[in-house]
Amino acid sequence: MLATFVREHWRAYASAAAMLSCIAAMTVWIPRQVGHVVDALVAGKLQGPALIEPLSLLVLAGLAIYLLRVGWRLTLFKAAYRLGARLRTRLFARLALQGPAYFQQQRTGDLMALATNDIDTVEMAAGEAMLAGFDGTQTLLLVLAMMTLSIDWRLGLAALLPFPLMGLAFWWISKHLHEAAQDSLTRFGDLNQQVQESLAGVRTLRALGLVDRSRQRFGALADSAAEAAFRSQRWEAAYEPAVGMTLAAAYAIALAVGGWLVAQREITIGQLTAFTMYLGQLIWPMFAAGWVLSLLERGRAAWARLAPVLDAPLTLADAGRAALPPGATLTAEGLSFRFPGAKRPALEAVDLTLAPGRTLGIVGATGAGKSTLVRLLLRQAEPDAGRLLLADVPLPDLPLATLRAHIAWVPQEPFLFSASVADNIALARPGATPADIEAAARLAAVHDDIARLPQGYATEVGERGVTLSGGQRQRVAIARALLSDAALLVLDDALSAVDTGTETAILDHLRELRAARPDRSVIVIAHRLSAVMDADEVIVLKQGHVIERGTHAQLLELGGWYAAQWRYQQIEASLEAE
Ligand SMILES: Nc1ncnc2c1ncn2[C@@H]1O[C@H](COP(=O)(O)OP(=O)(O)OP(=O)(O)O)[C@@H](O)[C@H]1O
């Protein structure tokens, strides 16, 4: 990925490298020129107006270096920010393709840390270190070192003696910094996860009186993240003393050996001046090398966390290319599924058929496998045995987009986005008119509730807006599903939070809708049997098995689980009515 990015932005890196070469050339030229000027001044060869030309050239060169440095930096940063944006897009695209099984193993807060903090770290490394910055400063270091050798090789060798030791110190520091940076990023991910969970569960924490305990836990994680950040900072700070000590030693050697060589008349004072200037100029690339190395190590640590997520195999294959004819019958054949690590299967050998225009009710005690069936239907998980077919096409042979356009799913706890009620409903059909949206809301028996909101359909809901009741949220989601063109409507316990009267109204509307869309099939999963009594077929699940099936009347006659449950719910309803 990084290599591809460099290839794509080769122009930016080539121009940064060219600018750096000019900087290097001028940095090399300036001390030489100053040395010549000093020698000419000492020899009395340069006086008065003759000084103007060499001095103005020096000023111009200084100015050019300054401008080139700004240009070089901006070029690299622009490319780095682009890399950040691309990595974020790529991460998002990858996560969007992953199935729920993947997210069960990942922590949301950690993924958020990857998308923000870790990508920032890679971005910095790419901008400053990984590319032209690193190579450039090292080239400059090499050129400057060569220049010191070219003045007098003995003096050069002696003064450069401490440098290999510095290299060794850099290697050691980098190794430890890498580990410390990785630890720091991981702890930041933990902290982020805690923020996400605490905010999402703040009401539960408050209700259970756990706010103080959660605050302590958060404090401990924040402290641990701060300590880890400080530990990596400590290693990062070690680069500077290593550079400082190396330079101090090089200067001491240069002055002692250089002074002796001047006394022996082997070199001139001008040459020694130029030599010490070269040494002085080494400060910048050396500090830069330390800084760049630390960014690089941090970037490598962040990349080590990011790469597995970017390259994780997709848990949901989308290789199907088959077309779906209109009016497709849904069939399940011997469907079995066991959650990873579960003792018993959530579904075992389930068969069913749902023809276009028909309604299927699925009932059963809690944990019977009703929602699991929907998961398999939506391909949120793949069956261990058996298969699901639409118009005789196995689901994996259909593109996911086709499957999703075919099914409108309303879960028990639907998600509303931070947007207006109208926008939340219109998600199912972008471009729907206000009249379409209102018609869908009326069918879902939520129009009156919406009309009572402060700004009606324009009221903001979701995290930043008005809080809707569970039943209102369910009905907004039903309106969303009804607005879509999907041929199969799945109400997955989606009427659990509405009262019986509203449930009846919605189901009546669904029946009326049949006239307009005779091919639309409906799956109603419910605990309240009144929600499925008009279904063309009802299946009763128990511990993953279909134990009864038939129409409401047939099931009552059968005298099994359904009949007993019906009697129980009737008594309950009459008691409530009293
Ligand atoms: N993510 C999961 N990991 C492991 N087991 C799971 C998971 N989700 C559900 N199960 C188990 O699978 C079985 C079937 O669950 P499912 O949610 O399909 O039941 P359900 O009939 O929809 O129940 P309810 O009416 O309470 O929603 C249960 O035993 C449940 O504990």
TrEMBL record:
Keywords: ATP-binding, Cell membrane, Membrane, Nucleotide-binding, Transmembrane, Transmembrane helix. SMART domains: AAA. PANTHER family: ATP-BINDING CASSETTE SUB-FAMILY B, MULTIDRUG RESISTANCE-LIKE ATP-BINDING PROTEIN MDLA. It comes from the Bacteria. It comes from Pelomonas lactea. Residues 330-568 form the ABC transporter domain. The chain crosses the membrane at residues 12-30, 50-68, 155-173, 242-263, 275-296. It is found in: Cell membrane. InterPro entries: AAA+_ATPase, ABC1_TM_dom, ABC1_TM_sf, ABC_transporter-like_ATP-bd, ABC_transporter-like_CS, P-loop_NTPase, Type_1_exporter. This is ABC transporter ATP-binding protein. Residues 16-298 form the ABC transmembrane type-1 domain. GO terms for molecular function: ATP binding. It is a multi-pass membrane protein.
